[in-house]
User: Fold this.
Amino acid sequence: MDELERQLLDMAYTRYKNTYKVADALAINQSTVVRKIRKYQLFPSPGKRRRGEAKF
Assistant:
């Protein structure tokens, strides 16, 4: 189940590029999106993000 959740978050973030939009699309809180992205270590640490990417 964790792997399915990780894949869903990865695909959603790749598509929307924004945790607020991901949360809206998945009908969950934005803080939940951020917490799960951190849990699954889907993206680089904040110091290594590209311009316009969400802060975690």
